[in-house]
Amino acid sequence: MSAVPTHRRPWLRTGAVTTAAALLLSGCFSSGSTDAGGEAADGRISLAMLQPPRSGLSPLSDDAFKLSRWSTAETLVVLDADGEAQPALATDWAQVDDRTWRFTVRSGVTFHDGTELTAEQAAASLTAATEAAPQPRILDGVDLTAVADGDDVVVTTGTPDPLVPQRLSSPQLAVLAASAYAADGTVSPVGTGTGPFELVAVDGTSGATLDRFDDYWGQPASASGIDVDFVPDGTARAAALRTGTADVVEAVPVSQAGLLDPELVHEVPMPRTNTLYLNTASGPFADPAIRGAAQAALDRATVVDTVYEGRADIAEGLLGPALPWAAEGRGELALPAAGTVPAGTAITLGTFTDRAELPEVAVLVQQQLEAVGFTVTQDVREYAFIEADALAGAFDAFILSRATVLDSGDPVAYMTSDFSCEGSFNISQLCDPAVDAALEAAAAAPAGPQRRALALEAEAAVLATGAAVPMLHERVIQGEQAGVSGAARDPRERVLITSETTAGD
C-alpha cells in the first residue's frame, strides 16, 4: 500500500492511553484540520474512527463498512430508513421468478482507476464475494450466482429469497474495478471504487487518505478529501473533538459525552438492543414462571440512567426506535406471568468486557434479581473467550448487546438466528413451535409492509416465551465540530461522510 501523502495531519495514534495522556496529546495537535477562524484548512475533513482495519480494508470483511462510511465503495442498491432497497449502481430491478432477479446497471459510471462500470464487472464483483473464504456474512447460507446479460446482472439463488435486493445493499458486496482483485484472492479498494471519494492511501492500522473524485457519476463531493485516523481509545477520540483536532468523531463513549460541549454531540438511535437472554432448556429459567419473575424484577430505567447516563432508550420490545415502524405497528405484548422465586435460587449470569457498559449493567441486573430471591454468580470475560460457552447454554442468563438488523437491514434474520429451533446464535436455547411458525411466515413474505407486520408478530411470539428480556436500545453518539455540515447520522452506521459533508463555515 502506498505511503501517506504529506497533506495528512497525523495525530493521536495511541491505541490505549490514560485520560491525562489523551489530554496532553490533544494539546500537542490542537491545530487539527481547522484554522483559527474555524475554516477547514484546505477543504478536507478530519475523521477519527473507533476501530482500525481488521482485514486490510478488504471489502469482503467487516472493513467494508469503513469503505461505505467514507463514500468510496458503492453497492448496486442502498437502503432507505424503512430498510427498503433504493437505486445506487443499479437503476432498477425486477424479480423474474421466485429464484431469479434482474438488475439494470447504471451507465456512465467510472471506477477510480479510470475504467468503466459494466454489467460484466458488477457480476464479477458479486462472484468474487461468493467465492471468498470466508464468505461475507450477508451470504451465510445463501447459494447465489451472478452473470451479466447485456446491461443487466442476473442474480439467481438456490432457494427463493425475497430479500435479494436488500442483500445486495451490504457494503460487503460493493462493486469494485477489475484491478481490485488479485490472483491470490486479496482485494484492494485503493483506487478501485466508484464513490465521490477515492481511497488513495492506507497507513496500516493508523489511518487512510481519500481525495475527491472529480469524475463521480452523482453529486460531486463538496470537500476536497478525507483524512482518517483510527483511534481505538475513547478518551483520545473525545479529546480530539474537544480540541478541534478532528472535524468528525465516530463513537464517542457515554462516559465522555457528558464532558463535551453539548452542541458538538449528536445522538442517534441505533438498531442494537441490550437484552437479557434466559436459558429455557435447563436450570431455573426452564420454568416460564421463573422467567416471568426475572423480567418483572428488572428496572430498565435505572440501568439507562445509571450506566448509560440517560443516553439510551428503554426497550419496549426487541426492535427499538431506530426502526420507527416497529413502535408504530406493535400491539400489546403478552408476557409470561411472574411466579414466586424460591429463596436462594442459584443462577449464573454471563456477559463480556468488550463493550465497556455491559459489566456495569451486569452489576445492576444482579442486584435486581437478588432482590426477588435469586442468588447470582457472575462470569464476565472477553467476548472471544465466552461466546462458545454462551451458545452451548452454559449460563442461566446472559447479557448481550445485539444488532437487530443485520446486513440486509431486515430484523427477521436476527430473530431467526437467535430464537428459532435451528438458530445459529440461540443463547436462550429456545425451541418453540409458535415462534418457529411466526418466523417462517415472516421470512417467506416479500419486503415491505406485510413483512414488517409479520416481523412484529414474530417479535411478540418470542417475547411471550420470556426467553429474552429486552432492556434498552443503544444510541450512536457522534461528535461534529460546529462548522461541520452534512455529516450523515446513520442508525445502521453505513454512511458517515457524504458528497454533501463539509468542515468549516
From TrEMBL:
InterPro entries: Peptide/Ni-bd, SBP_5, SBP_5_dom, TAT_signal. Pfam families: SBP_bac_5 (PF00496). Residues 85-424 form the Solute-binding protein family domain. Keywords: Signal. Residues 1-36 form the signal peptide. Residues 482-505 are annotated as: Disordered. Gene3D superfamilies: Dipeptide-binding Protein, Domain 3, Periplasmic binding protein-like II. This is ABC transporter substrate-binding protein. It comes from Klenkia sesuvii.
